[in-house]
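pinging the channel bc i need a second pair of eyes. not urgent but kinda urgent?? the chain im working w is below, pasted from the shared doc
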Amino acid sequence: MRFRLDDPRPEISVVAPCFNEAAGLAEFHRRAAAACERVCREDYEIVLVDDGSSDRTWPTIRDLAAQHRNVVGVRLMRNHGHQAAASAGLAFARGERVLLIDADLQDPPELLAAMMHAMDEEDADVVFGQRAAREGETVFKRASAAAFYRLLSRLAAAPIPADVGDFRLMRRRIVDALAVMPEQQRFLRGMVSWVGGRQIALRYERHARHSGASGYPLAKMVRFAIDAITGFSTVPLRLATWLGFGACLVAFGLFAATLWLWANDRTVVGWSSIVACVVFFGAVQLIVLGILGEYVGRLFQEAKRRPLFLVDRVETEGRSYALPPDFAALGPEARHKVWKATRATATRVARPAESGRSARPLDLVAGGLAE
């Protein structure tokens, strides 16, 4: 079935960022497609985004896109990170409602029907999955996640529910609002909360990974937490100010104590107290500089205005498509028009054999856009 310019939007788009998920992708597609068919028959699409995987994730996505006309495969030029890959999937999703979900099957796609029902019953804009239990995770992971969400809920200007990931069903207007938000260091669950509208929770039990290992080691989790806090709160800057005031009060107290000892002909024995004071004030200064550095770094990244992601190729219905390099910077309507025009004007050329990343970047050349 060829894509036509007058094709309506599908009822449901499922967006799944993938990083080294080759072992479980076929099972994810089977379950996600079955969940979609239960609620809207064939009126759906599944957008699979390969975020620079090093295994056979992309060949698997290509095979699925060739075998199933509802699958859209998006390959990024490199690993841009989970949040950028999810944003790329949202940029390609055309559905009136969009389900954002990871491909590791920790979040069950079968909840789509319940989310659709809750969205219709409550006239909600967003239905987000709230974890009641987390299988297959260590005590440290559960404790650190609980501490992070509770800290973030106290610091963030927008209300961010606890125990909530990116697993959510959104109406079209929420997805379009996300598309025009220019942040480079993205925290999607916070951005969705900031957009507003009626947002409700659906509690569920999160399963263990179907296969493979987590793509979020401790260092990435810490970086993600820092991005979340600095992206949605200025409290750390105020904390730096209060630390400065506190250090000044301590300094005045020590100075007053020194004068009192001098006035009473008492000498301070030893140098440990002096060293402790120097170390204390040095630590306060370093903490304040570090907090300022995080915010200055965010300003530096935003000021460069680089594309949020770069697309190597898009495949669907056994065809590959070229897109303009500024696709990520376009607004939601412009993206939709470019994507429709690209698909409508593509012509087939010979496909080279797949062996890693092919020397020829595209198998199909879209009229004018790939030149």
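so The longest strand covers residues 126-134. and Confidence is low (pLDDT under 50) at residues 1-6, 347-371. — does that match what u expected or am i reading it wrong
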